[in-house]
Write a structure and sequence with these properties.
CATH architecture of the largest domain: 3-Layer(aba) Sandwich
Largest sheet: 8 strands, mixed
Oligomer: single chain
Strand content: 15-25%
CATH superfamily of the largest domain: NAD(P)-binding Rossmann-like Domain
Order of helices and strands: EHEHEHEHHEEHEHEEEHEEHEH
Number of domains: 2
Length: about 300
């Protein structure tokens, strides 16, 4: 088994961003809005602050209560001296969080989660701007996962990098699983996507694909890559006997979704993604600054 440590890859991407900011003397300012006592939110906030400090981005945290988030967000959206925005969820823990997520200015959306960027992703529209001169922003955790998969034997560094590969994703959230499935499909893969309702095939090469259901057994048997993000100990962990020989396994959940024998059997195993998510946010922040703020 080849275990890939995301911290090493993240350090490489942070160094690239840090070098560019230092050499060009860039002054990039990021606002973070925290309105939750959720431990995971606080941890993510601390990682983001540390990541910004490491690469030379100025980070300002706004501690808020849920009722004041919309007002603070309006202020930082309109502040020309703020070039990127983090919001740490949950705020309300219900559908209102999605509404707030979509209030972030797309030109300051460090995490790439507003419907503006997500709709471009689902349409496989890879550029932005009146002259299509800017690369579109991609959601940070799905992007982190793909960058980690680039270090495995399943990645082809030309053409469609995952063409001919079958990939199962256990997570179909709007924040990670669904965008990730479409990104991988856009890059040539056949995708089996699972949530609590079961599995479906996602095929972004077809304008109006027929929904096709798939079982866990079939998906795992066929998959060259298995990606899990199920934050529940009730999830039946994936065992070695379910995997295709030589499969690559990646877990992005706070709970490990693979049995020990599956990790040992995997051609490559990626146990977590967290450090890379923050690194991709730093990369997105630099890209947003270059695209939309530098010459204003």
């Amino acid at each position: 088994m080849n275990t890939i440590d995301p911290a090493n890859t993240a350090a490489y991407f942070r160094d690239v961003v840090k070098k560019e900011i230092l050499e060009d003397g860039l002054e990039i300012n990021i606002a973070g809005i925290l309105a939750s006592s959720d431990p995971a939110s606080i941890t993510y906030c601390n990682y983001a602050r540390s990541g910004c400090e490491d690469v030379g981005i100025n980070f300002k945290l706004f501690n808020a209560d849920p009722d004041s988030v919309v007002s603070i967000l309006s202020d930082v959206n309109s502040d020309k001296n703020i070039h990127g925005i983090f919001i740490y969820y949950p705020i309300w823990g219900d559908l209102r969080d999605g509404d707030i997520r979509d209030m972030v200015s797309p030109q300051k959306d460090v995490e790439g989660l507003t419907s503006y960027w997500i709709s471009k992703l689902y349409a496989n529209e890879r550029f932005d701007g009146e002259e299509r001169q800017f690369k579109a922003i991609l959601p940070c955790t799905p992007l982190a996962i793909i960058k980690l998969l680039e270090e495995t034997e399943a990645y082809t560094p030309y053409g469609l990098p995952f063409k001919g590969k079958t990939i199962t994703v256990f997570n179909r959230s709007e924040v990670v699983g669904k965008p990730l499935a479409y990104m991988l499909s856009n890059d040539g893969a056949k995708i089996y996507s699972f949530d609590v309702t079961g599995g479906i095939v996602i095929d972004n090469t077809c304008a109006d694909p027929e929904p096709v259901t798939v079982t866990r057994e079939m998906a795992l048997r066929d998959s060259d890559i298995v990606i899990t993000g199920v934050p529940s100990r009730q999830f039946e962990k994936i065992s070695a006997k379910e995997l295709k020989p030589g499969a690559i396994c990646l877990n992005f959940s706070s709970v490990q979704n693979f049995e020990s024998d599956a990790k040992a059997a995997a051609a490559s195993f990626i146990p977590r993604v967290g450090p890379m998510t923050v690194a991709m946010c730093m990369r997105n922040a630099l890209q947003l600054y270059r695209n939309y703020h530098q010459d204003r």
